[in-house]
# Entry
Amino acid sequence: IEHRTPTDLSPIILEIVSLMGSRAERHGICLRTECEEPAIVLADPKRMEELLGNLVSNAINYSPDGGDVILKAETRGKWVELEVKDSGVGIPPEELNRIFDKFYRVRHPKTRKVIGTGLGLSIVKGIVEAHHGSMDVESAPDKGTTFKVMLPLFE
Ligand code: ATP
Ligand code: MG
# Structure
């Protein structure tokens, strides 16, 4: 059941960072955030936690050699842009359009011990679409991955 209400994403972002900070640290990853202004969207706060939690947990899981994960929120006109950027294994270009499919997982020697069902990103995509937003991904093998989500601001 959904309860959509005007929701500021900034405290949710801070909560995700504090919840996942110790896991990141254990993996030798520096998890940081940049979110200066409030960003209010009409959303179920639980769904927003799920969205950001999935992206940040992926960023940590698929960065086996440590590195940086940064979670940013920036308002752009009537939209807020959420960005989750990592310096992990990356995703081969030929697989980029499949990672949002249910149960799809990329095979990579460095991440084969990561346990997952392949559902996280399909859930994320569903949440974004249900909130009238859009998302995209940029990635390069061994360089890292950036997910961007655009959500309409509440006015
Ligand atoms: P779970 O259902 O537990 O989230 P999962 O993480 O395998 O399992 P998704 O979150 O849907 O599933 O991600 C699908 C696949 O996309 C992952 O298995 C991984 O191969 C790839 N992937 C997702 N995020 C990243 C990332 N930040 N860097 C590299 N690969 C990624
Ligand atoms: Mg996942």
Summary: The radius of gyration is 15 Å. Residues 54, 58-59, 62, 86, 88-91, 99, 104-106, 116-122, 145 surround adenosine-5'-triphosphate (ligand 1) (CB under 6 Å). The chain has a mean pLDDT of 96.
